[in-house]
Amino acid sequence: MLGSGEAIALVRVSLLVLAAGACGYGPLPPRQCNVDMDCLQAARYGSCLPSPLSAAQWCAFPSDDCPETGLKWGIRAGDGLTETCVGEPDAGPADGAIDAVIPDAPPVPDATPPDAVELLDMVTIPSTSFMMGCNATVDDLCMFATMELPYHYVELTYDYQIDRTEVSQAAYELCVASTICTPPAGDYDPVATPNLPVVSVTWFQAVEFCGWVGKRLPTEAEWELAARGTDGRKFPWGNSDPSCSQALYLDCPGTPVEVSSFPDGASPYGALHMADNVSEWINDWYDEDYYVTSPATNPLGPSSGLNRGRRGGFGDFDVSYLRVSGRYAYGDWMHAPGFGFRCSRTL
């Protein structure tokens, strides 16, 4: 059971502070953006703007502290612009002396550590349109899954990549070793089980890791497109119920397997375990009625909510949880043994 509203608010505030790099996380490396949806800070979306000091693009967010433009550069902005007002004459280092900014700051890890990139192979998904939600033509559960309705047209106007596999313990340990990430709460032995998915992580921990490797959590639309492709299929592999070579579920039970297992269950784009193994955090807030009013182009999810979305089944659940249209929710500050994640990035 959840505690009082005040207790929940305090937990969220505390975890947002952690996600911002306090309490031993150390300073975060700068991270460029490509589009507005790359910009998420303290559960708010911002704008991806060109730097006044270089060819880079950084995230900026609404702020009452900046009356001229109403925007402040984010905590991951580079060029010495961090948390200064956008468009004000004194923003950034004096005389463009970028290298002189905070000369005594401790070193931070590179935003895209080569080892982490090697361990996180990605598949590329070109801009396209597809039908999102429960497809009654191939799925007889649609009448019960009202949160997956209506079955609706969505267009993503940009190319993006998503991790081919769920984030492994070996990859996550690189971030823990850098002191940017904190260890998960559950079973975690990256030496003995490096290729098992990292589990028992909160939404905030997932966001932290993805940001560290220069990525982000996928939007709900990105996740579903990566899982089903454009033909409206029920599962990543097609419309037939799975065999034990395609997924881990009630009829083929077991604990989570290595992230590169079950190639026969791959999605049309080659992503693995989109239906099973561990349930995955996505970026969006969850609203069971969101599909009724969601935009047809580049949906980002509700602007606020009580829970974050999760996608995909896990553990010994029945086959209904393997459907690619399935939508689930959980508090972003909570964790469970079956919760993992994968990352995405805009091209």
Q: How does this structure look, described?
A:
The protein is α+β, with helices and mostly antiparallel strands and 347 residues long. It folds into two domains: 30-107, no CATH class; 114-346, paralog of FGE (formylglycine-generating enzyme). The protein has six helices and 14 strands. The strands form five sheets. Strands 12-11-10-13 form a four-stranded mixed sheet. Strands 3-4-5 form a three-stranded antiparallel sheet, with no helix packed on it. Strands 6-9-14 form a three-stranded antiparallel sheet, covered by helices on one side. Helix 1 (5-19) runs parallel beside helix 4 (203-212).
Summed up, what is this model?
By secondary structure, the chain is an alpha+beta fold. It is built from six helices and 14 strands. Helices cover 15% and strands 16% of the residues.
Number of strands: 14
Question: How many structurally independent domains?
Answer: 2
* CATH top-level class of the largest domain: Alpha Beta
Q: How are the strands of the biggest sheet laid out side by side?
A: 12-11-10-13
Write down the secondary-structure element order: HEEEEEHEEEEHHHEHEEEE
Alpha-carbon Rg, integer: 20 Å
What distance lies between the first and last C-alpha atoms, to the nearest angstrom? 41 Å
> Major sheet, described briefly?
4 strands, mixed
Into which percent range does the helicity of residues fall?
10-25%
Strand content: 15-25%
Give me the CATH superfamily of the largest domain. Answer: paralog of FGE (formylglycine-generating enzyme)
Name the overall outline. Answer: globular
Average of per-residue pLDDT values: 82
Give the number of helices.
6
Catalogue the unreliable spans: 1-27, 89-112
By secondary-structure content and strand pairing, the structural class works out as alpha+beta
CATH architecture label name of the largest domain? Alpha-Beta Complex
Give me the CATH fold name of the largest domain: paralog of FGE (formylglycine-generating enzyme)
